[in-house]
Amino acid sequence: MYKYLLLLKANSISKEASFRRESDAVRSVRLLRQGKVREAFQHAWQGYKEHAWLHDEVMPLSGGHKDGYAGWGASLVDPLDTLWIMGLRDEFEEALEALEKINFSKPNEGRVPVFEVTIRYLGGLLGAWDVSEHKYPILLEKAKQLGDLLYRAFDTPNGIPVPYYDWEHHGTEQLRGENGVIIAQIGSLSLEFIRLTQATGDVKYANAIQLITNQLEMTQNKTTLPGMWPSQVNCAGAIISFSSQAYTLGAYADSLFEYLPKTHLLFPSSEQYLNMYRTALSTFSQNLFFRPTLPGNPDILFPGSRTTGSSSSTLDTEVQHLGCFVGGMVGLGSRLNHSPYELEMAKRLTDGCVWAYENTPSGIMPEIFHVDKCVDPASCTWSGEGNGFHRVDDPSYQLRPEAIESVFIMYRLTADPTWQEKGWKMFEAIINHTTTDIANARLANVMDAKPTKVDSMESFWLAETLKYFYLLYSEPDLVSLDDFVLNTEAHPLKWEWHT
């Protein structure tokens, strides 16, 4: 899930493929599509501006607003870098004027969701600070203001932050560590806090993250599925521990694994994050990835989940839209590992999510569904009936970015224009079904040919989903993967390198 770009040294690993000179006809189609994406963003941004300015979300059917992320204007801050990337300079400047009014030292609610605030606000501020080439000091000023508030959530005996920070009642006594914490809530903070250290020179933010990383590394091979961490963690003791035996690359754990290779690129002199990624990749590629049996027998992969017991280990063929980041992660990791085999695996994983878009009545992937696993992955033969979905557990579409992010990364890694065609089918279906007079809305059931809209639009629609669609039809040197690394659920953050 999350969003960042890392500026690499010139002698680092090249990630983008070599792109051929495009014909006038191809360029014309690409620019037309890019313009359509930009128009979709402008429509949703205008709806947010008119109906929910300085609130966290606009309600795209009623015109109301929601404040679920401390009430600082998540849909304003989160997509600041998207405004810049799309060349919407007037809108960017106007948003910075509004940013002056936000006091990140004082939330508008009592308990601050540390993880969500970090990825939406701190990532948004730092991303905009970097893509705008450090021309707007207010972005770093606000990032430091927010970072100092979030840093207080790490005031626990073991240094592991509480997932929800009760800032109003935190006095001189230390906070208590908690049990039942979602693993992503502690494992997906590294890029933002490390970048804040780089930008400000204050080492306290990166030092706080190092305490978490050391404990994750210490426990990685001591779980019931060595190499992976389960979805929930006990942070109440001196060392984190696990009673959960549920392992997934979807909700609760996704961004933890995604951050590993990206954070290595931030610290190439240290092998800690890269070694953790390689260990995790070996485990989930053997224990979670599976080839499904589907009509037409496509050679694709899905990431499932696994539950371990005292004497058994069971694969659950549940597929989540949140897990669609995995194709992009494995693709970028293939460059770190110099592995053509991993790149082919990444293509099959990304094509799995493309299949899920192409085979619903609406043309949009459901949030959660089940498919059947091939008995023999080398020789799949479909013998069933229907469209291949064994069960659709959650038929909604929440405007999520994970699938299109991986499609975009595959295009940049391979220079294969078929990824642009796959992405365009996704975009047309999404825009056709989600657009309202105000903005864009979630969908209740994508298994209906005409899904019912739901009165919700989270900030990642502007900050991530439309950004990746836009970059898919941009010139390869706009946010080039030779200079940047994308982190999923994500918008870009450009990291400046300090040696």
Give the SSE layout.
Blueprint: H1 24-52, E1 57-58, E2 65-66, H2 74-77, H3 80-85, H4 89-99, E3 111-113, H5 114-131, H6 137-151, E4 164-166, E5 181-182, H7 183-187, H8 190-200, H9 204-219, E6 232-233, E7 246-248, H10 254-266, H11 272-287, E8 289-290, E9 302-303, E10 305-308, E11 313-316, E12 318-320, H12 325-336, H13 340-358, E13 368-370, E14 391-394, H14 402-414, H15 418-434, E15 442-443, E16 453-454, H16 460-472
Antiparallel strand pairs: 1-2, 3-4, 5-6, 7-10, 8-9, 10-11, 12-13, 13-14, 15-16
Helix pairs in contact: 1-16, 5-6, 5-8, 6-8, 8-9, 10-11, 12-13, 12-14, 13-14, 14-15, 14-16
Walkthrough of the structure:
- Helix content is 44%, strand content 9%.
- With 499 residues, it is mainly alpha-helical.
- It has one domain (24-472): Glycosyltransferase.
- The strands form seven sheets. A three-stranded antiparallel sheet has the order 7-10-11, with no helix packed on it. It has a three-stranded antiparallel sheet with strand order 12-13-14, with no helix packed on it. A two-stranded antiparallel ribbon has the order 1-2.
- Strand 10 and strand 11 form a beta hairpin.
- The chain starts with 23 loop residues before the first helix and ends in a 27-residue tail after the last helix.
What's the gyration radius in Å?
A: 21 Å
N-to-C span: 29 Å
Average the pLDDT over all residues and give the rounded result. Answer: 92
Mass-distribution shape: globular
Cofactor: Ca(2+)
EC number: 3.2.1.-
Enzyme class: hydrolase
GO cellular component, one term: membrane
What's the gist of this structure?
By secondary structure, the chain is mainly alpha-helical.
